[in-house]
Amino acid sequence: MELNDTVCFCFHITKRKVINFIRVHKPRVASQISDCGGAGTGCGWCRKYLTRYFHESAEGSPGVQSGRLSEALAEAPEITLDEYAKSRANYIRSGHGKPAPGAIPLPD
Predict the structure, then answer these.
(1) Beta strand spans in 15-98 (E)
(2) Can you name the residues that pair with 37 across neighbouring β-strands?
(3) CA 73, 75, 76, 82: dihedral to nearest 10 degrees?
(4) Quick one: how far is CA 21 from the chain centroid?
(5) Measured on CA atoms in the order 25, 27, 30, 35, is the torsion positive or negative?
C-alpha cells in the first residue's frame, strides 16, 4: 500500500497519517494507535495493519516492546489497495466486523 492509501476505511485514515502519528506520538503499544482518529475501533479489519506499522517503526527503538515484526508481517502482508479493500469486504461479509457509520462502502 502507498502512503496516501486509506488504511482505516471506517474513519478514513491513511497510512501516512498512521505512520506520522507513530513517529510523533511514539506509542508504547500498538493499541495506542486508536488515538489516531479512532483507527482500528470500527470494524477491526485494519488492526493487524496498524500493528504491522507499529512493529515496523518500533524495531530497534529503545523502550518499546516489539520483537514481533516477523509475526506482524505474516499477519498483514503487503498488498495492493484493491486487494486490501476486497479482503476487508470479505472479512465484514463473513460476520467478523461491522463498519462504523460513515465508513467507506464495501466494494461490489
Answers:
(1) none
(2) none
(3) 140
(4) 12
(5) negative
What is d(CA 10, CA 27) in angstroms, rounded to the nearest whole number? 21
How much of the chain is helix, strand and coil, in % rounded to 5?
Answer: 45, 5, 50
Quick check: helix, strand or coil at residue 89? helix
Q: What is the mean pLDDT of the chain?
A: 90
pLDDT digits (tens, 9 = 90+) for 43-98: 999 999 999 999 888 765 555 455 577 777 788 888 999 999 999 999 999 999 99
Return the domain boundaries, the chain: 6-93
E-strand stretches of the chain: 6-8, 13-14
C-alpha 69/C-alpha 81 separation (Å) is: 21
Cell numbers describing residue 93: 461479509
Cell 506499522 belongs to residue: 53
CA angle 8, 27, 100 (to 5 degrees): 25
Give the pTM. 0.86
